[in-house]
Design a protein that fits this description.
The chain is built from 12 helices and 8 strands. The protein is of the alpha/beta class.
C-alpha cells in the first residue's frame, strides 16, 4: 500500500435532535463528494470525526459504513486509537475485519505515558493486526509527544508501522523524521497550513481537515506540493491559506462543520463538550469561501 496524497479526516455528521444520532445520509453524501473530488483516502473516526464522543457501536458503524462506500475507490485509514492499549487493540482488530486499508493510532491522551510506555503501546497494537499502521502524534491534544527516536524504535520492532501523521506544528520535526528514517517512514502533514513546507522537507501528503469542504482543490494543492512546479504549488497553497486559518479559529471540528453547513452538506451539530462555533467565526468562514469561489486561487 502506497500512502501518499490527500486523505480527508472526515467529520461525523449528527442530527440535531435528542441524543444527536449519526446522520448516515449526510455521511454517505459527504463520502461520495470526497471520492468525486479525487482525494486519495478517507480517515474516519479521527479527531475531526469526534471519536472521543462516539459510542463504541457508532465508532464501529462509521468505519464499516466508510469501507462499504469507499472500498476500491479510495483508501480507508480508520482511526482506532485510545488511551487504553487494550481498547486500541480491539478497535484496530475490528477495523481490520471491516476491511480497512490501514489504521491510524493516536498517541494516548490524558494519561501521558513515558516514551517506553508509548513504545510498548504502539508495538502491541501493530503486532495485533496485519494492516499498515499510521502513528498520529498531536501533542496539543494528547499531552504527550512521541519523539522521533521512539518512533524509530517502534518501526524497528513492528514492520507494519509505516507512516506517521505529524501534527506537532513543527516542520523541523517532520524534517528530523525524514532525515532519520528516510523512505522507511512516510510522513503526512497533520496541519493543512503546513502541507507545502512539510512536503518540501520530505512529507508525502496530508491528512486534511479542509478537504472536507474543498476536496478537489486541496487534492490539487497537495499534488503540486509533491510534484511541482514550485511556483504553482505556492500559489495554490497560499490561495487556500485563509481557509486553513479560518477552520482553526476555534476548536476543530466546529468550524469545518459550520463551513459544511454553509454549503448545505450537513447540519451544524457537534457533540458536547464541543460547542458550535461563534457567529463571528461563521462570518469569517463564509467570507473566505466566497472570496475563494470568486477567484482567490
Amino acid at each position: 500500500m502506497v500512502i501518499e496524497g490527500t486523505y480527508t479526516a472526515i467529520v461525523t455528521p449528527f442530527r440535531d435532535e435528542a441524543g444527536q444520532p449519526v446522520d448516515w445520509d449526510a455521511l454517505d453524501a459527504l463520502l461520495e463528494a470526497q471520492i468525486a473530488g479525487g482525494i486519495t483516502g478517507i480517515v474516519p473516526c479521527g479527531t475531526t470525526g469526534e471519536s472521543p464522543t462516539l459510542t463504541r457501536e457508532e465508532h464501529a458503524a462509521v468505519i464499516e459504513r466508510t469501507v462499504k462506500r469507499a472500498k476500491g475507490r479510495a483508501q480507508v485509514i480508520a482511526g482506532t486509537g485510545s488511551n487504553s492499549t487494550h481498547e486500541a487493540v480491539a478497535s484496530s482488530q475490528h477495523a481490520e475485519r471491516a476491511g480497512v486499508d490501514a489504521v491510524m493510532v493516536v498517541v494516548p491522551y490524558y494519561n501521558r505515558p513515558t516514551q517506553d510506555g508509548l513504545y510498548a503501546h504502539f508495538v502491541a497494537i501493530a503486532k495485533s493486526v496485519r494492516v499498515p499502521v499510521v502513528v498520529y502524534n498531536v501533542p496539543a491534544r494528547t499531552g504527550a509527544d512521541l519523539m522521533p527516536e521512539t518512533l524509530a524504535r517502534i518501526a524497528e520492532a513492528a514492520p507494519n508501522v509505516v507512516a506517521t501523521k505529524e501534527a506537532t506544528g513543527n516542520v523541523l520535526r517532520a524534517q528530523k523524521i525524514a532525515q532519520m528514517m528516510g523512505p522507511r517512514m512516510t510522513v503526512l502533514s497533520g496541519d493543512d497550513a503546513l502541507t507545502l513546507p512539510m512536503c518540501a522537507v520530505g512529507a508525502r501528503g496530508v491528512i486534511s481537515v479542509a478537504s472536507n469542504v474543498l476536496p478537489a482543490e486541496v487534492s490539487r494543492a497537495t499534488r503540486l506540493a509533491l510534484e511541482g512546479p514550485a511556483a504553482e504549488a505556492r500559489k495554490a497553497h497560499l490561495a487556500l491559506l485563509p481557509l486553513y486559518e479560518a477552520l482553526f479559529l476555534e476548536a476543530n471540528p466546529a468550524p469545518v462543520k459550520a463551513a459544511l453547513a454553509l454549503r448545505g452538506v450537513m447540519r451544524d451539530v457537534v457533540r458536547g463538550p464541543m460547542a458550535a462555533c461563534t457567529e463571528g467565526t461563521r462570518k469569517v468562514i463564509a467570507a473566505v469561501l466566497e472570496a475563494y469561489a470568486a477567484g482567490g486561487r
